[in-house]
Amino acid sequence: MKKIDKLILSSFIGPFLLTFFVVVFILLNINMLKYFDDLIGKGLGWSLIGQLLYYFAVFTIPTALPLAVLLSSLITFGNLGEHFELTAIKSLGISLIRSLAPMFVFILFLTGVAFYANNYWVPKAALEAYSLLYDIKQKKPALDLREGAFYNGIPDISIKISDRLPDDKTIKKVIIYDHRGRTGNKEVTVADSGKMYTVLGDQYLKLELFNGFNYSEGNSNQDISGQSGSTESLRKTKFDKTQVVFDLSSFGLARTDKKWFQSNRMMRNLNELKGDMDSIHREANTVKLSIYKARNMLFSYHFKDSIKLPPELETFQKKRDSIRRATKLIPETDRPNSNLSDFQVIYADSSSRKKWENQSDTLFEKSYSQSEITNALNQARGMKSQLTNFNANLDNYNEEFKVFQIQWHSILSSSLACIAMFLIGAPLGAIIKKGGLGVPVLTSILFFILYYVATLMGQKWAKQGSVTVPEGVWAADAILFFFGIIFLRQARRDARLFDTDFYLVLWDKGKRWLASKGFIKLKVS
């Protein structure tokens, strides 16, 4: 590797790592702010929060890598141009394309890393993150006894305290209603003061109560402290000190089996998405095939079936039947006309054909009764209802297929976006010749917004069917590559796209061309 290659690579890697982690940090904060209300007050440990942050950080890689490549390449070549290092490189006879070669090789490596991350790391991180987030949402808020208010977080228990000392353990004026007997407010404990602890890894809440009374009404055989008592209509027990323990297992984080989340498109890689699309395609073909098979039942007065299966459905039927026969799900038949419907087999026989023709001659000569008209109308409505249901099922399959197809293409397109961003950033930095974080950051934000909006609009149009899925998903990359090629061409020609004189010269050339064609007249000064 030449010294110039080392110089360019060392100038690029530092800003790239810095901008990548900064972008990940910003995107991570944006994502976590959406779930801030679901995390606060749940008593989550730092290890659990750390896992959630890690998974969401991995989840931001597809967005962070292209933006980091764009910003760092702008900074690198902007600094080289600002300090005349790029001019020195060109004076040695090294072209701009050659100076871009070491960075381009590194960007190809980053593209491979981006693809691996999008296809393996991100689906696994999404599965872990969203399954954990779902369980956190279902988790009860942490135990929080507030002064002057009843707390009902513990099942069938209501607790009120009037004061809580700064040590977070000593409480004053305690009232406890025990509803575990399902008999109303008939078990009440009142205490002057007490101490509150959590024991056995926060699994139980222990209350030590001092100077109080326990009131029991009705046929209760057990007071709140667990001591047995005699049955009586009203019982009052005074105590100097007693202990009460409540189960806090309902406050724990119950993990849901991840298999219930694995079908989401964000949690699938390319092979799994391909399998999902094949499965949806088979289901859709099964529905279509059932429509064609039901035509003899729905249209019972058609004596000759002129509707043929489309080639793709015929191929699908043969393949499905061969698989069923191979697995002995359906028996072989010796009937010569096994591919025909029962009605067609009957009609194929010459004597049966004459019989149906004779019946059809007399059938349409008779006048219709009201019951026959009503029956025919009901059959027509039934046909319409069934066909409507068939079409609704097909629409649902098509929409689901598009969702998985969009995700399949997005994994590839977001990886190649690194190359497109590099083709924009490096030539544009050479043209601007401004390093630092001012102009590069502003330019990066503008092109990232263009990329983000084009991606969202393309996916939306693809879902609506306005464009095909490949066109909608790859439109953003195509736009970036278009701008990248233009900037690369201008950078090779040392164009001054951001100088006023450049556009004044273009304006003068345009006026001369229009004057030569006779559209305008130039004033001679």
Topology of helices and strands:
Blueprint lengths: L2 H32 L1 H4 L6 H14 L1 H22 L2 H7 L4 H43 L11 E2 L5 E8 L5 E9 L8 E13 L4 E14 L16 E14 L22 H24 L1 H4 L12 H16 L15 H7 L1 H14 L6 H63 L6 H26 L4 H24 L7 H17 L9
Antiparallel strand pairs: 1-2, 2-3, 3-4, 4-5, 5-6
Helix pairs in contact: 1-4, 1-6, 3-6, 4-6, 4-12, 4-13, 6-12, 7-12, 12-13, 12-14, 13-14
Roughly what fraction of the amino acids lie in strands?
5-15%
| Secondary structure: number of strands | 6
> Which regions are unreliable across 5 or more consecutive residues at pLDDT < 50?
332-353
**Overall average pLDDT:** 77
Short characterization:
The protein is an alpha+beta fold and 525 residues long. The chain has helices spanning 3-34, 36-39, 46-59, 61-82, 85-91, 96-138, 270-293, 295-298, 311-326, 342-348, 350-363, 370-432, 439-464, 469-492, 500-516; strands spanning 150-151, 157-164, 170-178, 187-199, 204-217, 234-247.
